[in-house]
Design brief:
3-stranded antiparallel β-sheet, mainly alpha, Butyryl-CoA Dehydrogenase, subunit A, domain 3, about 55% helix, 11 helices
Amino acid sequence: MRLGLDDDQIALRDGVRRLLQSECTPATVRAAWSDPATVGRALWGKLSEMGLAGAAVSAEAGGLGLGACDVVPLLEESGRVAAPLPLVETAFVAGPLLAAAPDCGEMLERLLAGELLVACALDGSTIAPYAQMADALLVSEDAGAGCGIRMINGRGATRPALSIDSSRAAGRLEAPVSADALRLPPAQIAAAWNRGVVGCSAQLIGLTRTLLEQTTAYVKDRRQFGVPIGSFQAVKHHLADGLIALEFASPAVLRAAWSIDHRASSTERDVAMAKVLASEAALRVAGIALQCHGAIAYTTEYDLHLFAKRVWASARTWGGVEWQRARVASALGLQFDTGGGSA
């Protein structure tokens, strides 16, 4: 197993990075706090032109046919810039589901054309990130019934839900899944859920890298007692601890992607472990960033909060840390008290 990227994966990742750095600046994310739908759709149009809408859709169905190991680095780049749109939900979760489902050709065509954004509530939650900007909502009923997919009319099926990160345009479901919703086998739902967890984990890795980079640059520039504060041992130790957490989490996310691609027997464990490590690393680095920046980190005029708040919100979606720990324990045949369940 090679937990690294080959030349093709690096080239594709770098192309997406260049686009996102150009089209999704901190000013773009800030604008999404007041108008997430407009900003998110504009960015989605640019990414769709690169083919990201169909990245995880098979070539036979009109997509790029990329595996999880190919898509995860691209999702990490979207995390680096805190992209304010449901990229994981649309391209990595819904795309493969629609390609495999019967009678979804029209929806798939719209998705591949960049005309469809999808929000997800596959954990039974009544709150779905990005639901207020989405065209379709992927919801889960009970395991026996499978999954229901239905078109929503923006705010017609959901009402705005408060979130620490307003750029995610969260919505609270107003009505149950319609009786004529599409039913999908539980195995497909489990696979879609795992893709969502790994995609969210990849974005957390990207967010962590940005927070570390921002903080490292700041402590090199900020001076106290006549020297950069980055020269202080306590600051160095904090940043080193954050980097170690990141370097442990990043390979775990790649391993989970590999397990998905190869349908490994350890997939459930690997996916849960990736989310735990990515969430913990991101939460730790967000705290370190706040501490090292001092008072300026708590001002809304400073860009740091755009990334820290995305971390705090994302760490609780697609299964919180304690809930995912319980999945790891279950896969190992152990018992684990979640202390409150999934976030």
